[in-house]
Sequence to fold (312 residues):
Amino acid sequence: MAVNENKWGILFCPKGSFRPLKRWEKIEKLLRSEHIDFDYVQSESTGSVERLVNMLINNGYRTIVIVGGDSALNDAVNCLMQAEKETRDKIALGVIPNGVMNDFAHFWGFREGEEEQTVSWLKEHRVRKIDAGRINYQNKKGESCHRYFLNCVNIGLIAAIMNLRRQTRHVLGFRTISFVISFILMMFQRLEYRMHIKINSDDLDRKIMTVCVGNALGYGQTPNAVPYNGLLDVSVVYHPEVMQMIEGWYLFLRGKFLNHRSVHPYRTSEIQFLNTQKAMVGIDGRLLSTPSGPFNIKVEQEVINFLIPARV
Fold:
């Protein structure tokens, strides 16, 4: 049944939240205090997010707000991109950060613990058309597949570390501890892969530690990327010496990742991966089943209506 087009459809994703019921009660109270008309559903698992977003789309909600992190946003975007363009163009997507990783929300200035400000901004309903990246690949059955992303795709070591961080966070429950444990476990990870990559006029065929293809911040690896210029930022990292690696982590934490001598930045609308030596691939913080054979990553310009802060 179609709903009032002014009513919001809200998907609450409690995974990774501390005291999720209390958190939702706070957000619900704020929404009601702002006199926002809404319906909400709650995801039970990662697999239920796409089903629930599709339900909101099919029931005619024109504003869909995800209370979750990068992975939940990724699911929502992929649902929207499956819809007819006429339908998608009528829907605005918003976010209240609530996940393990909220990098895309941070790009716009949405912060955890600042729900009052976030709800106030969302109520202004300022919409901007933004880009979405798309990875095209074949699965192990030889079937053509694709997946959209808002933040980034990581190939190599960082994808492995982020996978470790997600696993340790799930077990330990504390962000800082999981990050430290992941950093220690990184020492036992494979540090480089023989990759063959084509970016613009450059043909790279050599050992590479990690590649980040960013539509936005890329968890600090593509700090200059913006999701509205029709281009992707790419950071290719060669394997540094031990002292250079320590320097790299220091620059990364200081937000100066691109200043490291082992980091080679590019800007492009498409990148081709002819060989990655079966390196792990992460998309918006979640591990993607490793593509079988070559794959490419492109950008599709201005395909998502996104709710942004009034001050941006």
Observations:
- Residues 157-172 form the longest helix (16 residues).
- Confidence is low (pLDDT under 50) at residues 170-176.
- The first strand starts at residue 8 and ends at 12.
